[in-house]
Specification:
Chain B: Keywords: Endoplasmic reticulum, Glycoprotein, GPI-anchor biosynthesis, Membrane, Signal, Transmembrane, Transmembrane helix. The complex is a heterodimer. Chain A is mainly α. Helices cover 70% and strands 0% of the residues of chain A. Chain A has helices at 2-8, 11-35, 43-56, 71-76, 79-82, 87-109, 114-125, 128-135, 140-155, 159-172, 180-187, 199-208, 213-237, 239-250, 263-268, 275-297, 301-314, 324-328, 331-334, 342-369, 374-397. In chain A, helix 6 packs antiparallel against helix 7. The longest helix of chain A has 28 residues, at 342-369. Chain A is globular, with a radius of gyration of 22 Å. Chain B is an alpha+beta fold. Chain B has 2 domains: 2-215, Sandwich (Immunoglobulin-like); 218-248. Chain B has helices at residues 2-38, 84-93, 220-244, and strands spanning 40-46, 51-59, 69-76, 80-81, 97-100, 116-121, 131-140, 152-157, 161-165, 179-184, 192-197, 208-213. Chain B has a 6-stranded antiparallel β-sheet. Chain B has a 4-stranded antiparallel β-sheet with strand order 1-2-7-4. Chain B is elongated, with a radius of gyration of 28 Å. Classes of the chains: A mainly alpha, B alpha+beta.
């Protein structure tokens, strides 16, 4: 068994095998789509392809209903129309394997040995969840690659490239914008502790610490990339681009059942006067947690980004299983520093799946059997939030950073 | 004199032709009337939950000519919708073709959308068999929560209207008591034709009621309170642990 694991985690074998598995599933998916009623390919892939088709006809990709992504994605997928419809899936699986490679490089930079790094990588590369998601035609792997690329550049102190990749990832999906605070905190000038802790002077020193060349460079390049892309697509597609790519996601209130603990509350109050206030109340825990996480862990950017994304997804007003990949791609960066035993780790994993299972049961009965299970879905959503919070607390409590900054003793 | 005789004969011949054509026309229109009266339309809704299938069966008169076109007109309530993209992919695999009269909002709740009409052509090309079966997938919309402790809401789906057309009965006349209606000639929607619409009494069954679950509005207070309490507690617990284990 040990020999098998060692063989599998040799660099070339691992990366080749993970690509071949994904490719085989893409081929199988094509076969299933042609022969069976239940399709392998995700509906999103058809949305992307239809939008790409509109672009090849010189029209706006937003002519395709429910296309709520950047036009860049539809442009990237135009070979789906010109060459073969499978092009997009190949692109996604390549990005998926590339994400694995980026995880490997980041782990090496953080001081992990080659063999250990490859074993951790295998958790992503041979994981059925990302394999399934990218071979079915979801574009999450592009964003995973961009976010991991940003983190690699930050770790290697290639700030300009990091800024470019960061600007690009925020353009593609809004959620990486939350990383701005920990990145800014990590790039500010760290000063020696002064004894002069008077309120005003301390505050001024704090503000001044943000005014340095590195932070300025990062902010201007990232903002420049983002604004340039936004301006270009606004010029090409107008207000519809801005609304579908950004505003829709910022104001999204999906009252249909989803993993979010807020779903039933938002459904019952959708047309009431309280709706806006409740939306704001739902935003507060997310905001508080993101601020605390940024301040507490900004010196370890990978861990901080992982926490940010998990918090963002778990406390969001809408949560679908696609969102889980946003933080799962960062989990391999955290795992080597966890002092949890294998048993504890597997226990938490089973708990996480159990939480999903407890939600999926009543959701199935509602959607496909027509039972009124709204109350059960609501309770399962709350339980899933509790489980996610518990898992995050365990991760935070058992995280051992490798850097020299001291860990504050538990008070 | 001969000239007069020839012109009278020519006149008589053309009058005879017109009368014959009119007679044939009346014959075909009469047949059309007979076919529409003897056709039966029945509808069944299968599957459960928010994703159903509407199965429409049309039994035409056995003596229906091959040149007759059939159109099924569904008037859908706002509580359900069809997915145009799903229909497009299904249409590639089946005989029937469909046109929608408006853009469909795939995500809106029932009280914020309107009903719509679909034109289904069971056999757009080729001869018309006497027994037609069309299955259309429909999806239920979310409805407003109920504040009177009702756990389900009812959506009434009417069976489709049957319309027939034949080029041999043009223009349509003498098809009383049936109505004449303008509708697209084919699924290409490039021209409009006059179709004979079957009277309501000839449908085998009346409308079908479909039940969809709705939220319980009377639980609004406890649900909001419970949700905000749990999320705040999780927020406090997680913040506390993150602060305790912060890395300086």
């Amino acid at each position: 068994m040990e020999r098998l694991i060692t063989k599998l985690t040799e660099k070339h074998v691992l990366f080749t095998a993970s690509f071949v598995i994904r490719l085989a599933l893409v081929a199988y998916g094509d076969y299933q789509d042609k022969t069976m009623v239940v399709k392998y390919t995700d509906i999103d892939y058809h949305v992307f392809t239809d939008a790409a088709r509109f672009i090849t006809e010189g029209q706006s990709p937003y002519n395709r209903s429910t296309y709520r992504y950047t036009p860049l994605l539809a442009w990237l997928l135009t070979p789906n129309i010109y060459l073969n419809m499978v092009f997009g899936k190949i692109l996604f699986i390549v990005c998926d394997v590339l994400s694995g490679l980026l995880i490997y490089k980041i782990l090496l930079l953080k001081g992990l040995g080659t063999e250990a790094a490859l074993r951790v990588c295998a958790l992503w590369l041979l994981n059925p969840l990302p394999i399934g998601v990218s071979s079915r035609g979801n574009a999450e792997s592009i964003l995973a690659a961009l976010v991991l690329g940003t983190l690699l550049c930050m770790e290697a102190r290639h700030l300009m490239w990091g800024a470019i990749l960061y600007g690009l990832s925020v353009h593609m999906k809004i959620y990486p914008v939350t990383y701005a605070l920990p990145i800014a905190l990590s790039l500010r000038t760290t000063e020696t502790r002064s004894e002069d802790n008077k309120g005003m002077k301390s505050l001024m020193r704090f503000i001044r610490s943000f005014l340095n060349r590195e932070l300025f460079l990062f902010a201007s390049v990232a903002a420049g990339v983002f604004c340039m892309l936004t301006a270009l697509f606004y010029y090409m597609y107008g207000w519809e681009f801005f609304h579908e790519t950004y505003l829709y996601h910022l104001t999204r209130r999906d009252i249909r059942h989803n993993f979010s603990p807020y779903f039933y509350m938002l459904y019952l109050t959708a047309d009431s006067g309280w709706s806006q206030w409740l939306g704001l109340a739902a935003f507060l825990p997310q905001l508080i947690l993101l601020l605390v996480a940024s301040w507490a862990f900004h010196s370890d950017l990978s861990f901080c980004c992982f926490l940010h994304t998990s918090i963002f997804v778990s406390f969001n007003k809408v949560c679908t299983s696609q969102y889980f990949l946003w933080y799962l791609c960062l989990l391999p960066l955290v795992i080597p520093h966890l002092s949890l035993s294998l048993k504890q780790g597997v226990g938490l994993l089973i708990l996480w799946f159990a939480g999903q299972g407890l939600w999926l049961g009543p959701a199935y009965f509602l959607e496909f059997e027509g039972y009124n299970t709204f109350l059960w879905i609501w309770l399962a959503g709350l339980l899933f939030l509790i489980i996610n919070s518990f898992i995050l607390i365990q991760i935070v409590s058992h995280y051992k950073p490798t850097q020299t900054p001291q860990r504050l003793k538990v008070e | 004199m001969y000239f007069v005789l020839v012109s009278v004969l020519a006149c008589l011949a053309s009058c005879h032709c017109f009368i014959e054509r009119d007679e044939k026309n009346e014959n075909h229109c009469g047949l059309l009337q007979h076919w529409i009266e003897s056709s039966l339309v029945s509808m069944e809704i299968i599957k459960r939950g928010f994703h159903r299938e509407v199965e429409t069966t049309v039994e035409l008169s056995p003596d229906v000519h091959s040149g007759v076109r059939v159109l099924l007109l569904h008037r859908w309530p706002r509580g359900v919708y069809v997915d145009p993209y799903q229909l497009a992919s299904l249409s590639d695999l089946s005989d029937w073709k469909i046109i929608l009269d408006s853009t469909i909002d795939l995500e809106g709740p029932a009280h914020k959308t309107t009903g719509f009409v679909t034109f289904v052509y069971p056999t757009p090309d080729g001869p018309t068999p006497t027994l037609l079966k069309v299955t259309i997938p429909i999806h239920g919309r979310y409805h407003e929560p109920s504040f009177v402790a009702e756990t389900f809401t009812s959506v009434e789906i009417e069976p489709p209207e049957l319309l027939l057309w034949t080029e041999k009965c043009m223009p349509l006349n003498n098809v009383e008591p049936h109505d004449v209606m303008e509708a697209p000639c084919t699924h290409h929607n490039s021209s409009s034709c006059q179709w004979v619409k079957q009277q309501h009494q000839q449908k085998e069954r009346g409308p079908v009621n479909v039940q969809f679950p709705v939220g319980d509005g009377s639980l609004c207070g406890p649900v909001c309170g419970g949700t905000l309490l749990v999320t705040m507690l999780c927020c406090v617990a997680l913040s506390k642990h993150m602060w305790e284990h912060r890395i300086i």
